[in-house]
Amino acid sequence: MVGLKPSLRPGVLAATLATLPVRVDEARVIPNDVWLPDYPSGPRPSSVVRLNGDGSIGIGENVAFFAREQQRFSDFVEGWLRERAGKRLHVGSALGEGGSPYERAALEAALVDLGMRQAGLSLHALTGVGAAELRFVLSLAACRQPEPMIRGLRALGYGGELKLDVDPSWSPRTLEVLAKDPSIVIFDFKSRADAVLAGRLYDLADGALLEDPPGSFGESTHAHERRISRDASIVDERAVSAACARGESVNLKAPRMGGPLELLRGLERALPPNDMAAGKRDPAYFGGMFEVSVGRRQAQQLAALYCCNAPNDLALNEPAAAIPRLRSPAVIRLDHLGFGG
Length: 341
Fold this sequence. Notes:
By secondary structure, this protein is an alpha/beta fold. The protein is built from eleven helices and 14 strands. The strands form four sheets. Strands 7-8-9-10-11-12-13 form a seven-stranded parallel sheet. A three-stranded antiparallel sheet has the order 2-3-4. The chain has a two-stranded antiparallel sheet with strand order 1-5.
């Protein structure tokens, strides 16, 4: 099942989805705050937007991190609907102007979902892939001594790969132990630490990705090895092109890029025109933003289509008791109506 090739390139899929007709009669924003492991400062603020039209429902998730941003989302959707209710629109042009990237991404995902359902389409119908296996990693927050945390995960039964946030205070011994752990496939700097630590990890952690290392860690020093990855700066198609031109990998997130259509257009820039040669590193992978509902399923579907073998940071956000059930690769169904269903 791994390696099934979709019949449409991501750019063509984006164009196809953009031309879908869609009609929206009603819209509602529903709060959906959820307690999550490793999420700081209480429950994770969240909401979904439900679009109704022609007997179908489309859903998108707003991943904004602050309650005030979630509250503002309702006003944005209400104003958007006021000008468009009952009209025949197209998914790619229905958004119009305004809104933050998170707001636009949630609404666009709901429009894609609704447009596909109104047309009776699944991703399987569009791409020829009914299901795909998805490789994913489990992401761990930074801490001074992560070894006990990793041992705890193993004791719970999680045997898969990890993405670990870098703590600048790691001792040389901790750094060496972590670098030699083959299950840690991504070290996420979040632009913290310094070039010296980044250089040591690059040399010690053979094959691991270094995501958003500090700016002083030369962008061109390791060109064409794709072991340097960019996340925070990947906000649109142009940013993808710039990173790939430097020989870097990219972590793609629809909320950061303003919606799934821009993500697909960016992915088109990242993927080579032909199949990757054996043993070559994937140039792109998908990341999460603490999605708690349909947003995570939508990201998993697109990742399964185009980046199934990459280290996608898309494990389900679940309590510790559910960790033993996490198995990578996971089978992602693509034959249900709509987007994320």
